[in-house]
Specification:
The protein has two helices and four strands. Strand 2 and strand 3 form a beta hairpin.
Length: 72
């Protein structure tokens, strides 16, 4: 499942990308504030979304609850 994430602070894009790569996600930067990620394993969509939400909550808690939007 590929998901695009947009950050409100472009200075944090590299940090989020690195965080997700350490969790073995594939990460591609689309533009200065958007990345696309793919989880390292196949999961049903609902489980994949829950895993992604968990990763984002952990990363946000480490960065003062930086704003990340999921782009549909």
């Amino acid at each position: 499942m590929g998901v695009r994430l947009r950050l409100r602070d472009p200075d944090l894009v590299a940090s989020l990308g690195d965080f997700l790569r350490r969790r073995e996600c594939a990460v591609e930067q689309i533009d200065e504030e958007t990345i696309e990620i793919v989880l390292p394993h196949e999961l049903p969509d609902e489980q994949a979304r829950m895993e992604l939400d968990l990763y984002l909550r952990v990363w946000q808690s480490l960065h003062g609850w930086a704003r990340v939007d999921i782009v549909d």
